[in-house]
Write a structure and sequence with these properties.
The protein is α+β, with helices and mostly antiparallel strands and 694 residues long. It has six domains: 3-127, 3-Layer(aba) Sandwich (Rossmann fold), CATH 3.40.50.140; 136-183 and 462-567, Topoisomerase I, domain 2; 188-251 and 390-456, Topoisomerase I, domain 3, CATH 2.70.20.10; 258-385, Topoisomerase I, domain 4, CATH 1.10.290; 577-616, no CATH class; 619-694, no CATH class.
Length: 694
């Protein structure tokens, strides 16, 4: 009789089943099977915070089937994911199936390969109760906050609202950044640059004024000062008074952890955190690869550890030597120190290809768009981390002109090293160093142009998903498994909206954040939340009792809730409407943007005297090439802008390409813009032309 192996997903079951053979039957629990009830608190506060777990709605039939399979099987092994959530699923399955949690019926796989599965099956263990209790504590904390706080928000802000322990901190971070930008006062400064053209060279380069001839730093803060300096430099010789040559080495970035993978995928491909994790889950659980069958292509993708196995390092270096040559192999074992405040666990390796020799080109034909892109990113980053440093020859020059000192620096690549394969993406649009022409000490450089540019200091940018995840990680808020759900939740609740890649709070989000700051300062306090995460880690490591941890939090929270009820008795927070230029066609008053349970809409500011409402749409001014209806700006479920006909559903024309005011000279229809070209979308016309550069 076969043994029953239970995993979370059918994809994972299929891949593992291939490696285990006919003596095992592998089936899927489809994620969690039990949880706290949706309709009640489900926690007995007066009795040690005892949870009341019930079968999740719609899972009754599945549970019945699992029980039947377990009854006739020759033993049951629980093979859910190797983290808190996976341990919790296994504990609940053991409880449902009547298994002893202290018996060796739990197996985990860091990678879904033949070797990884065999390794996991060879080391069955008991359910890790500390790991489960950490998950249980987190779930109860989130439930207590959500269940107790939501009704308060209904009464004081708007019905149907909900609150979350970690999500509230994320909203605060975004709102704090917006306030910082709103309050920012720019300072004027001027850059004075000299474009120099050495005699005998075709190259020119730019040197920037940095100091007086005495070396004292010089900051130019207004036009008058800039004009004075430019006038003083008239007719002066530009002489190299200091020339320094050197060498520097650049090390590759470490392999990905969950947060850096989400950040890099956002920068490189515009992926949301959820989209990244969806593709990563597929790569981990297994994909049919031509010539290899079903195989998990990456190691477990929820991790904050930078550790890499010696075996994986050896395999990577073998491939690097074969493809690029021995010089490109890093001769030492790289050790990376985590910059994350959340890096408390080392249970898993960093995210890497499970088979380093399996290249993106080799698997490309078997993967879809997102998984192909993500595998290439993960593979390239990991391989680069095991390659030799990039070596650069640097040169820095000090150039004296009259009473002023200019500086320029540059480099040339002496050996490309890991950059032959990969360079880390960045949010900073820094001025890149360039190569300088051959220069000598004492050389006089002819001046091509001297120019002064007015600049202003800039506020910090709005958060993107990538930078928000970085901030959460840096501050110790959340854990690898929570970054994506945090962002999804605050967007779905209408507290935050995506504007291209930027995250902005809505008037609703601002109102809720204001209430939370005033009445529940601990909940939205960054340090308090980070300390809570650390306490959950101590539960996981067996150094703290989960009930005591929940109790400590709840007593303070309950007191805050009691005080908030008193402080806001008889009060209600108004959610600001967003003004528009639209005029009500019934009473002539301005229309405003309101938010309802089904999203934003236009409403008359004269409500309740005038109850006129309209759907919120923006007219591009262009006309549909099929029916002549107005082309409207719309947003997809993922926040991407597209353009659709206003006569939908009668006309279903839509396009990602922006309509422009210009009309087609052949047929008079609206023109659309795509990749530097204007084209006519009217059937049979075919007109197109390049976009005119201004």
């Amino acid at each position: 009789m076969a043994k029953l192996v239970i995993v979370e997903s059918p994809a994972k079951a299929k891949t593992i089943g291939k490696y285990l053979g006919r003596n095992y039957k592998v089936t899927a629990s489809m994620g969690h099977v039990r949880d706290l009830p949706a309709s009640q608190l489900g926690i007995d506060i007066d009795n040690g915070y005892a949870p009341k777990y019930i079968t999740i709605k719609g899972k009754q039939k599945l549970v019945k089937e699992l029980k039947a399979e377990a009854k006739k099987a020759d033993g049951v092994l629980l093979a859910t994911d190797p983290d808190r959530e996976g341990e919790a699923i296994s504990w609940h399955l053991a409880n449902i199936l009547g298994l002893d949690p202290s018996a060796p019926n739990r197996v985990t796989f860091d990678e879904i390969t033949k070797k990884g599965v065999q390794e996991g099956m060879a080391h069955p263990r008991a359910i890790n109760m500390d790991l489960f209790n950490a998950q249980q504590a987190r779930r109860e904390l989130d439930r207590l906050v959500g269940y107790k706080l939501s009704p308060f928000l209904w009464r004081k802000v708007r019905r149907g609202l909900s609150a979350g322990r970690v999500q509230s901190v994320a909203v605060r971070l975004i709102r704090d950044r917006e306030i910082e930008i709103e309050n920012f006062k720019p300072d004027e400064y001027w850059n004075i640059d000299a474009t120099l053209h050495p005699q005998g060279s075709r190259s020119q380069f730019v040197a920037r004024l940095t100091a007086g001839a005495d070396g004292k730093k010089l900051t130019v803060t207004n036009k008058e000062q800039a004009d004075t300096i430019v006038a003083a430099l008239d007719g002066k010789n530009y002489v190299i008074t200091k020339l320094e040559k050197g060498k520097r080495r650049r090390q590759p970035a470490p392999p990905f952890i969950t947060s850096t993978l989400q950040q890099d995928a956002s920068r490189a491909y515009g992926f949301s955190a959820t989209r990244t994790m969806r593709a990563a889950q597929t790569l981990y659980e297994g994909v049919e690869i031509a010539g290899h069958g079903a195989i998990g292509l990456i190691t477990y993708m929820r991790t904050d550890s930078l550790r890499v196995s010696d075996e994986a390092v050896a395999a990577a270096k073998e491939y690097i030597g074969g493809r690029w040559g021995e010089r490109y192999i890093c001769k030492t074992k790289r050790k990376y120190k985590s910059r994350s405040a959340t890096a408390a666990q080392d249970a898993h390796e960093a995210i890497r290809p499970s088979v380093p020799g399996l290249t993106p080109d080799e698997v490309d034909g078997s993967l879809t768009g997102d998984t192909a892109k993500l595998y290439r990113l993960i593979w390239s980053r990991f391989m680069a981390s095991q390659m030799a440093d990039c070596e650069q020859d640097t040169v820095s020059v000090g150039i004296t002109a009259g009473d002023y000192l200019f500086r320029a620096s540059g480099y040339q690549v002496a050996f490309d090293g890991y950059t032959a394969l990969y360079e880390e993406a960045t949010d900073d649009k820094e001025k890149k160093e360039t190569a300088l022409p051959p220069l000598e000490q004492g050389q006089t450089l002819p001046l091509e142009r001297l120019h002064a540019d007015q600049k202003f200091t800039q506020p910090p940018p709005l958060y993107t998903e990538a930078t928000l995840i970085h901030a959460l990680e840096e501050n110790g808020i959340g854990r690898p498994s929570t970054y994506a759900p945090i962002i999804t939740t605050i967007v779905d609740r209408g507290y935050v909206e995506r504007d291209a890649k930027k995250l902005r709070t809505t008037p609703l989000g601002q109102a809720v954040n204001s209430v939370m700051l005033d009445q529940f300062p601990d909940i939205v306090d960054i340090k308090f939340s980070a300390d809570m995460e650390k306490k959950l880690d101590t539960v996981e490591s067996g150094q703290a009792n989960w009930v005591d941890t929940v109790d400590e939090f709840y007593k303070g929270f309950a007191k805050s809730l009691e005080n908030a009820e008193k402080n806001m008795e008889g009060k209600r927070v108004k959610v600001a409407d967003i003004p528009t230029d639209e005029i009500c066609d019934k009473c002539g008053k301005p229309m405003v943007i309101k938010s309802g349970r089904y999203g934003k809409f236009l409403a008359c500011s004269g409500f309740p005297d005038c109850k006129n409402t309209r759907p919120l749409v923006k007219d591009t001014g262009g006309l549909c090439p099929l029916c002549g209806g107005h082309m409207l700006v719309r947003k997809s479920a993922r926040g991407r802008v597209y353009y659709g006909c206003g006569n939908y559903p009668n006309c279903k024309f839509m396009t990602w390409d922006e309509p422009v005011p210009e009309t087609c000279p052949k047929c008079g229809a609206t023109l659309f813009k795509k990749k530097g070209m204007l084209y006519c979308a009217k059937e049979g016309c075919g007109f197109e032309k390049p976009v005119e550069k201004k």
